[in-house]
Amino acid sequence: MRIRQEAEKATEAIDELAPGVLRSQLPVELPGLGHVNCYILEDERGIAVIDPGLPGSRSFAKLEGRLKLAGYKVGDIHTAVITHSHFDHFGGAERIRTETGADILTHESFRPAWEAKEARENPDSVTAVSAEDDLDQAVSEGKSPWERGGKTPWGTERKPPLQADIEAWEKIGMDERKWFRTPTPSVTVVDSEVIKLARREWIAVHTPGHTGDHLCLWDPEHKIMVSGDHVLPTITPHIAGSTEAHDPLALFFQSLRRMSEFSDAQLVLPAHGHPFHGLVERSDDIIEHHEERLDTIRTASEKLAEASVEDYMKELFSPRVWGDMAGSETYAHLLHLEVLGEMRSSYRQDGVKLFAPS
Questions:
Q1: Measured between alpha carbons, how far is 8 from 274 in angstroms, rounded to an integer?
Q2: Which domains are present in the chain?
Q3: What is the number of other CB atoms lying within 10 angstroms of the CB of residue 172?
């Protein structure tokens, strides 16, 4: 079985990709992910880092090591750029600010909620336990952030956390847990705003979809797109239906189609996997993947008629990934079809939401 690029283990290589732009890889031990790319942008003030890895001392030590290999130290960082509010991207930012006074730059909609575990991001949207609990409260009460009850937006009871996740959290000391708190940005940007990094101007590109606060950066001089998790080389990001967005999949489609505005891109710098060419083509591939999922639901609706999100989930995903995250992605697709007028929803007496062809 071929290993996806995004699952490859981090190396110590420091690669110069363009003037003032270096790529380093930080280890990420999550299902389906082996590293996160931490890009180093050099300028007269020192360096900015994009997505400085996981929370905790072990990852921070790796960041220090990568910076040393590149000829820098943590004290040289003046800005930590976070592409979106997932903890394998923002984890090192608060400690950088604590030690250096560096700015933390995000999109203005950066979400102040913490996700306990990244979705397993591959074309099957393999499920993992996830939560958006307030970590400060969890830490202060001594609880695991995975301790979460209640119901999903589609009315089913949330699945219990994996015992391994609870045990892993319990092994983390209280001093370490503070670094898991979502950072508060000191600089926020809006779509199309200009940012000065690496001795040139970059343009902020808001790309809601994988998260509502996702930020890409476009370098019009060297035709480089920092794509974060928005466009990845060999896997597709999870699209959650359990958000405040009315139609999260439509937002993702819109953000992907917007990549056609950057058809002259010469290089794409993803958060996971290797830099690649063909931004528009890869964006189109991801759209096609989700269109196929919509077609699968359309076909399934002919036999399921009125059915729950979990029933439709079992048509989209293999049994090994059934759970709240797979259900959330299924829900996003069902909501999209409802907005299109192809599905209608209702509720059973027990509060479970049902979908049926219109």
A1: 10
A2: 5-114+180-285 (3.60.15.10), 135-178 (no CATH), 301-357 (1.10.10)
A3: 15
